[in-house]
Write a structure and sequence with these properties.
It is a single chain. This protein is mainly β and about 350 residues long. It has 3 domains: about 55 residues, no CATH class; about 170 residues, Sandwich (Immunoglobulin-like); about 110 residues, Immunoglobulin-like (Sandwich). About 5% of the residues lie in helices and about 45% in strands. Strands 17, 18, 20, 21, 24 and 27 form a 6-stranded antiparallel sheet that branches. Strand 22 and strand 23 form a beta hairpin. The longest helix has 13 residues. It starts with 8 loop residues before the first helix and ends with a strand.
Length: about 350
């Protein structure tokens, strides 16, 4: 409804300054609110007070539709190959001045630059959306609930939405999977019911509740379209192990330790070197090596967790491991990114 009250030029200018200086609130006065303003006029005639005059004006606050979708945090989500339930979190906020439903759509990028600068190289599988029930920004299989739309989200309220998937086991260090979440406002359709599409009021202001789209552009939607979107990504951070196996003759029965040869009775030392060229530590490394029948294992010779100098293995490991013919077994608890650790053992040529 158009107001019938008028302001003077000076008063209008003052009001404009006050409005521009007032802090902006996300939702503001609820749509549908009727605001009434009454003016009173007192006057005299011939010095005698007359009956006071009053006039009232009312208008209905219209509905401003506004929302944001924003990734939680400003970094990629680090994952390892084979990870199930990998998740990245987004906050959907209803900045409107009325409760709304929000339809959710999650997609995966197909190449190109991902949210944090990497190039999209793979897709996660078992791709799905969940509501973060306990608010920890991470997927909990027994707690979080699958979701396709946000139901009856109040003005100024937010919900955390998780994009969840499985990282293929074959992915290697540095692989990136870009993901996108789009939320689109809908009418509040009642509890448990997805509301109808929103329609923006066209033309002049009406006496009822008009609808104005006021959202900004997202990464994949335009301004004032009752939708918003943002991107995030998964980045594979894993260990990459390179294994090399070398042997050297330590001594033989004829030459002893001076220029020994691989003759029967010679002592031969094997070194299994495991180099981690990835970006994360490898753990629980189990090593199995079959000793050929032409060799006899030297009891107590296994050394674990040794180092290398250049390409040469150092005899600086600790005793351990087991031998159950014909298998040498040993375990290394962890190999840090950039490190090399060894298993060394000795045999005698039959």
């Amino acid at each position: 409804m158009t107001s019938k009250l008028k302001l003077s030029t000076t008063a209008a200018a003052t009001a404009a300054i006050m409005i521009s200086a007032t802090p902006a609130f996300a939702a503001g006065t609820a749509s549908g609110t009727v605001i009434t303003n009454t003016v009173t006029v007192d006057f005299q005639v011939g010095g005698v007070g007359q009956t006071q005059r009053t006039a009232a004006d009312s208008f209905t606050v219209d509905r401003r539709v506004n929302l944001t979708v924003a990734e939680v945090g400003a970094v990629t989500t680090q994952v390892v190959p084979g990870r199930t339930g990998a998740s990245t979190a987004f906050t959907v906020t209803n900045n409107s001045n009325a409760p709304l439903d929000f339809v959710l759509s999650a997609t995966q990028l197909s190449g190109g630059t991902a949210a944090h600068g990497g190039t999209d190289t793979f897709d996660v599988t078992a791709f799905s959306l969940f509501r973060d029930v306990n608010g920890n920004n991470s997927y909990d299989i027994a707690t979080d609930t699958a979701i396709s739309f946000i139901d009856e989200l109040a003005a100024d309220a937010s919900v955390t939405i998780l994009i969840v998937g499985t990282v293929p086991l074959a992915e290697t260090n540095g692989g990136v999977a870009g993901v996108r979440l789009i939320a689109t406002g809908r009418e509040a359709g009642g509890i448990g019911t997805q509301g109808a599409a929103l329609t923006q009021t066209v033309g002049a202001n009406t006496a009822g509740v008009d609808t104005v789209f006021a959202d900004a552009a997202g990464v994949a939607d335009a301004a004032r379209d009752a939708a918003h979107s943002d991107d995030d990504d998964f980045t594979v951070v894993t260990a990459t192990l390179n294994v090399t196996k070398t042997s050297r003759v330590v001594s033989d029965p004829v030459n002893l330790a001076v220029n020994p040869k691989m003759i029967p009775g010679a002592v031969v030392e094997y070194c299994i070197a495991i180099q981690n060229t990835g970006a994360a530590a490898a753990s629980s490394i189990d090593i199995d090596d079959n000793v050929p029948s032409a060799l006899t294992f030297t009891s107590g010779s296994i050394l674990l967790n040794g180092t290398v100098t250049g390409i040469a293995c150092n005899a600086d490991g600790v005793a351990g491991g087991t031998y159950t013919a014909p298998l040498v077994e040993g375990s290394i608890a962890s190999i840090a990114a950039g490190a090399t650790r060894t298993l060394v053992f000795r045999t005698t040529v039959n």
